[in-house]
Design a protein that fits this description.
Elements (H helix, E strand, L loop, with lengths): L22 H11 L10 H6 L3 H18 L5 E9 L5 E2 L1 H6 L8 E9 L3 H16 L3 H16 L9 H6 L7 H15 L19 H19 L6 E5 L2 E2 L17 E2 L2 E5 L4 E7 L5 E3 L5 E3 L1 H13 L6 H4 L2 E8 L2 E9 L2 E9 L4 H10 L8 E4 L3
Parallel strand pairs: 8-11, 11-13
Antiparallel strand pairs: 1-3, 2-3, 4-7, 5-6, 7-8, 9-10, 12-13, 12-14
């Protein structure tokens, strides 16, 4: 979504009513964005009982941590260096010789040491400690603090790991429980954690900027298609890529001034010979028209048109009739409209996040279908 063909005015950037999104659907987006869709049906009671997403994350992180403690936390290896009385690992010849360690009966070694103080365990402890200071629920806050202290007693340090350390601590496929625990811990630092609101199952205002929720929506939609579209029917899902303008006879500096074009998701179906270029937007799909009523946003339409027409290549048959789709989250609004414009079908569709989780999933599944519903049912704007 970094690609913008023009600076959008205030009407193009109208925020969504985040306070009307049920916690269960925020949880659904989080699961798909984190690659944890297999946990969708496992915590229904916790989701329904949580007043907001922050409490849900805290409750489930406590649950996952307690479960890992009962089965023993994962160990890992960390690289160490030291001057020892016996050889361990590899000898550091330069260090040993330059300090004349042999004469003292010592040797400089580099080795790996088994430890419980791994990046994955450290980020969990740091997340629990942070939640303990955030939560207004005294019992849940106390539970987080006790678990953080318990991790400290077994040897997990309280220092939050760096992003590079987290990236280097790869979680294997069979370590599903660790993947859930670490993803929940990351959510404390990286995702939107809304403040507590009135009502049983809604979130009110994001503590982080809305861009974080936008990233959550974008990644969730992409991962949904990657995991749900059947590969045996020819579907392939590719991350978005930066397109290049088909420039010829260009002046010396024109390329540095042209706006970039970066799509979010590309779907291809080998069986049907289709390509769908998808861009997600985290804003309202409609804007008031100058003569009354509502219309699609001019900048978004131009952007999708440029994606499709600028990439036509005779040696790439799918580019000549590729579909374009803009997907918007919505609250109480159902829009699914399309038109064939110069050989390309352009589609504008919403995902109503105020609906049930089953309806949200079904809507996402139906989006790659050829025909649009062609309806607009507004319960509230």
């Amino acid at each position: 979504m970094e690609a913008v063909l023009e600076q959008l005015g205030p009407e193009e950037q109208a925020p969504l009513a985040l306070d009307k999104i049920p916690v269960r659907n925020v949880w659904l987006l989080f699961l798909y964005a984190s690659g944890l869709a297999q946990f969708n049906d496992r915590f229904e009671a916790e989701v329904e009982d949580s007043p907001d997403f922050k409490s849900l994350i805290a409750r489930l992180l406590c649950y996952a941590t307690e479960k890992r403690q009962r089965r023993n936390l994962s160990f890992g290896y960390r690289r160490r260096e030291g001057i020892l009385r016996r050889v361990r690992g590899r000898i550091d010849i330069l260090e040993t010789v330059s300090n004349d360690l042999f004469r003292r009966g010592e040797v400089a070694c580099r080795f790996e040491e088994l430890t419980i103080d791994t990046p994955r365990n450290r980020i969990v402890r740091a997340a629990l400690a942070k939640l303990a200071g955030w939560l207004e629920d005294a019992d849940l806050s106390h539970r987080c603090r006790m678990l953080a202290n318990a991790l400290g007693r077994v040897g997990v340090s309280g220092k939050k790991p760096t992003r590079s350390e987290i990236a280097s601590d790869q979680i294997a496929r069979h370590e599903g429980e660790d993947r859930l625990m670490v993803s929940l811990a990351k959510a404390v630092f990286d995702l939107v954690l809304p403040t507590e609101s009135a009502g049983a199952r809604t979130l009110l205002k994001a503590q982080r900027e809305e861009t974080e929720f936008r990233k959550l929506f974008e990644k969730a939609v992409g991962n949904f298609f990657a995991s749900e579209l059947p590969r045996d029917e020819g579907w392939r899902v590719y991350p978005g890529k930066q397109y290049v303008w088909p420039v010829s006879e260009a002046s010396a500096g024109i390329r540095s001034y042209l706006p970039i074009m970066i799509t979010d998701i590309i779907l291809e179906n080998e069986t049907d010979g289709r390509r769908i270029i998808i861009d997600t937007k985290f804003t309202n799909i409609l804007t008031p028209g100058q003569r009354g009523g509502f219309r699609f946003k001019t900048g978004h339409l131009y952007q999708l048109y440029a994606y499709l027409r600028s990439q036509e290549r005779q040696n790439d048959p799918l580019s000549l009739n590729a579909d374009g789709m803009l997907i918007y989250p919505a609250i109480g609004l159902d829009v699914d409209e399309s038109a064939l414009i110069q050989g390309h079908r352009m589609r504008f569709a919403t995902i109503d996040l105020s609906q049930s989780t089953a309806e949200v999933v079904e809507r996402l599944r139906m989006l790659p279908m050829r025909s649009a519903v062609g309806t607009k049912k507004a319960k509230s704007m």
